Amino acid sequence: MQRLYPLPSTEVPLDQVYRDLGWPEPPPDRPFVALNMVTTVDGAAALDHQAQPIGSATDHRLMRCIRANADAVMIGAGTLRAESVDPSVPAAFEVERVQRGLQPQPLAIVVSASAELPLQRSFFHSPRFQRVVLTGPEAPEDRLRRLRPLAQVVVAGTGAFDLAAGLRRLRQQLGVRWLLAEGGPTLNAALLAAELLDELFWTVAPRLAGGQAPTMVAGPLLPAERQPRLILRSVHLQDSELYLRYQVGSAHHAPPAE
Ligand SMILES: NC(=O)c1ccc[n+]([C@@H]2O[C@H](COP(=O)([O-])OP(=O)(O)OC[C@H]3O[C@@H](n4cnc5c(N)ncnc54)[C@H](OP(=O)(O)O)[C@@H]3O)[C@@H](O)[C@H]2O)c1
Questions:
Q1: Ligand 1: distance of its center to the CA of 83 in Å?
Q2: 125 is in which domain, residue-wise?
Q3: From ligand 1's centre to the CA of 9, what distance in Å?
Q4: Does residue 6 have a cis peptide bond before it, meaning omega lies within 30 degrees of 0?
Q5: Which atom of ligand 1 is nearest to the CA of 49?
Q6: Quick check: 131 and 108 in contact, CB under 8 A?
Q7: 20 located within any domain
Q8: Does the residue 41 lie in any domain?
Q9: Which of 38, 109, 134, 258 could form a disulfide with 55 if both were Cys (CB 3.0 to 4.6 A apart)?
Q10: Half-sphere exposure (CA, 13 Å, Cβ side) for 16?
């Protein structure tokens, strides 16, 4: 794989590209949060409600390398309702993870205020990883009762689900230091609005969807002064597919209007 940035450009073995991300120590009240997404060149984050067909096999390998750095992988309930998700890493990564002080497999977290989840999905039955359902106080008790044999249920917020409170509980009660969010666009919008994103990995797949499709973030437009500035950390290239890593900086505070 070709590294295009930082310069000088150089050839890098695929499995070394995101092997050790050197993520910083997290803040005390939440995990360090990275987001990994793939889109087409025209911005489609799903094709016929599926993300899986967008990226190449190389993208899927890089996704697992990024996961290998994380304590937990988090998705929104909409993603699990739309497609089958396996947030694990290959067994070959497990020894290295343990040497780095991580569990052999990342914790699998699904965010759902309603707790209305597709319990038939293999996500809820795989013996390879532990699961957490991050939900809110409005989730009906009978749904939580059905979930509890399959996953740890964490209720966050008072009155309504509170994502920031949920991340605080992941950090302080479950010891999640490095959290990898993997979409979808609704959860991404909530993370962005709550200023909970630290890094973004974005794969630009060399194709045009050509129609209406969800983009990376599906939420209300942020006012300009709350849009974070992104700092480019690296760019890699293989077979016309681009792999970008950004640091999410603080919001740009525009000067007050005259
Ligand atoms: N291109 C990519 O890299 C990529 C990655 C992942 C997914 N996708 C695609 O994205 C689509 C799904 O995305 P989506 O936007 O529909 O769903 P989503 O973001 O996966 O999940 C949205 C759901 O998560 C829960 N949730 C998330 N944040 C919340 C908050 N702050 N407060 C309350 N609830 C919250 C809610 O669940 P409840 O409704 O249960 O309360 C909400 O309906 C699929 O087609 C999938 O293929 C693409």
A1: 11
A2: 47-219
A3: 36
A4: yes
A5: 45
A6: yes
A7: no
A8: no
A9: 38
A10: 7
pTM listed for this prediction: 0.96
Asked whether residue 97 is domain-assigned, the answer is yes
- Selection from 171, 141, 170, 135 nearest residue 153 by Cα: 135
Query: What's the CA gap between 149 and 147, in Å, rounded?
Result: 6
Ligand 1 geometric centre to CA of 190 (Å): 10
For residue 248 and ligand 1, the question of a CB distance below 6 A is answered with no
Tens-binned pLDDT, residue by residue, of the chain (258 aa):
999 999 999 999 999 999 999 999 999 999 999 999 999 999 999 999 999 999 999 999 999 999 999 999 999 999 999 999 999 999 999 999 999 999 999 999 999 999 999 999 999 999 999 999 999 999 999 999 999 999 999 999 999 999 999 999 999 999 999 999 999 999 999 999 999 999 999 999 999 999 999 999 999 999 999 999 999 999 999 999 999 999 999 875 444 444
Centroid of ligand 1 to alpha carbon of 78 (angstroms): 4
- C-alpha 2 – ligand 1 centre gap (Å): 32
CB of 77 closer than 6 A to ligand 1?
A: yes
Our count of domains for the chain comes to 1
52 CB within 6 A, ligand 1? no
- Tell me, what CATH number does 117's domain have? 3.40.430.10
Answer whether 26's CB lies under 8 Å from 32's CB: yes
Q: What is the largest CA-CA distance in the chain?
A: 60
